[in-house]
Amino acid sequence: MLAKRTGRPVRCVNDRYGMYDFNLNQRYVHLKVGFQANGLITAIDDFSIADGGARGSTNFGNTMDQTYGPYFTTRCQNVKQNMEVIDSNRGKMWLSGQHNPMSWDSLMVTLYAIAEKLGKDPIDIATLNLHGPESQTDPNPVPSYEACVAAAKKMMDWQWHKSGEKKLPDGRLHGASFRYNQCPRHSGTVFSPKLELRNGEVHLNSNGAVIGNYILEANAMVAAEELGLDYKDIRMKFDHHETYRPWGGGSDGTTASSWAVKECANKLKKLILETAVEEADNPPAAGGFGGFGKKPTPNPLKGRKPEELDLQGGKIVVKADPGTGIPLSQIRANLFATYSGRPPLALWNQRGKALDTMNVATCEVAVDTDTGDVEILRFGVVADTGKIMRRTSLESQIDQVMDFSAGCQLQEEFIYDQNTGVKLSTNMFEYKKVSMLDMPRVDLDLLETRAGNACYGSNGISHSLANTHLVIMAIHNAIGKWVDPPATPDKVLKALGKV
Question: Is the pTM of this model over 0.85?
Answer without folding.
Answer: yes
